[in-house]
């Protein structure tokens, strides 16, 4: 319990394939994916994880069939409305990152309301990446830094890693130590490219709607079995 990551990031993949295995359409998989979100959030809270980031919808996902995108937007709004009371009751703080201006107005209002209701909570911080792209995030951070240089509030020589981090959408949170991706895909798909620089990556064949507490614990056990050296040698780590 003393070697738990503070921050876990998860790419929730495989809803469509899981639905196909059940002989159902993709939205059926997304609805069941919400159940897995609930299970994982409950498990993370119980275990003592401080931050949990879930990749729910990428900017690339806007190119999916319109019926699926519309269904997902409705699902987001309905799920937030349904889950916020329990999240608030359990002291969970909600935060959303991404190009939220691309979301329908109803969805934007639901997200804003959810963040306002849970803003003072001090338990698990649940970060949902919606309409998110790490390359978009880095472009926006670069623009903000460039503007500071132009207006004279920042010298170019003072652009540091810390300055870049402070201009990302995740500036309030520590970088993830563990990234989990479900469904057997072994890539990070434009997700937290800067923040995952030293994260442990864990890939599982389990499809997201089938992922639960035991799967999370298995990932955590694997994380704890690894030696995190951050560029040092194994001997240096053990000496320190």
Characterization of the model:
- Strands 3-4-2-1-5-6 form a six-stranded parallel sheet, sandwiched between helices.
- β3 (93-97), α4 and β4 (125-132) form a beta-alpha-beta unit.
- α3 (66-89) runs parallel beside α4 (105-118).
- The chain contains eight helices and six strands.
- 45% of the residues lie in helices and 14% in strands.
- It has one domain (7-133, 175-239): Undecaprenyl pyrophosphate synthetase (3-Layer(aba) Sandwich), CATH 3.40.1180.10.
- The chain has 240 residues and is of the alpha/beta class.
- The chain is globular and about 55 Å long.
List keywords for this structure.
Undecaprenyl pyrophosphate synthetase, 6 strands, 240 residues, six-stranded parallel β-sheet, 8 helices, alpha/beta
Distance between the termini: 21 Å
Order of helices and strands: EHHEHEHEHHEEHH
CATH architecture: 3-Layer(aba) Sandwich
- What is the name of the CATH class? Alpha Beta
Tertiary shape: globular
Q: Summarize the main sheet.
A: 6 strands, parallel
Tell me what portion of residues adopts beta-strand conformation: 5-15%
CATH superfamily: Decaprenyl diphosphate synthase-like
Structural class: alpha/beta
Q: What is the rounded Rg?
A: 19 Å
Named CATH topology: Undecaprenyl pyrophosphate synthetase
How many domains would you count in the coordinates?
1
Number of β-strand runs:
6
Q: Give start-end ranges of low-pLDDT stretches.
A: none
Report mean pLDDT, rounded to a whole number: 95
Helix content: 40-55%
Strand order of the largest sheet: 3-4-2-1-5-6
**Total DSSP helices:** 8
């Amino acid at each position: 319990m003393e070697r738990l990551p503070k921050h876990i990031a998860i790419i929730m993949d495989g809803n469509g394939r899981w639905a196909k295995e059940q002989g159902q359409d993709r939205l059926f998989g997304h609805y069941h994916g919400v159940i897995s979100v609930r299970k994982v959030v409950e498990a993370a809270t119980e275990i003592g994880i401080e931050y949990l980031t879930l990749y729910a919808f990428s900017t690339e996902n806007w190119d999916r069939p319109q019926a699926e995108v519309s269904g997902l937007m409705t699902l987001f709004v309905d799920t937030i409305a349904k889950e916020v009371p329990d999240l608030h009751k359990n002291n969970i703080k909600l935060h959303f990152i991404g190009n939220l201006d691309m979301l329908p107005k109803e969805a934007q209002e639901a997200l804003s309301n959810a963040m306002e209701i849970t803003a003072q909570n001090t338990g698990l911080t649940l970060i949902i990446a919606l309409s998110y792209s790490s390359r978009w995030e880095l472009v926006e951070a670069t623009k903000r830094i460039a503007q500071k240089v132009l207006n004279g509030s920042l010298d170019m020589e003072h652009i540091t890693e810390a300055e870049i981090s402070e201009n990302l959408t995740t500036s309030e949170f520590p970088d993830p130590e563990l990234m989990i991706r479900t469904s057997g895909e072994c890539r990070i798909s434009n997700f937290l490219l800067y923040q995952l620089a030293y994260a442990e990556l864990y890939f599982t064949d389990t499809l997201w709607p089938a992922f639960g507490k035991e799967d999370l614990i298995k990932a955590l056990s694997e994380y704890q079995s690894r030696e995190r050296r951050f560029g040092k040698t194994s001997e240096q780590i053990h000496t320190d």
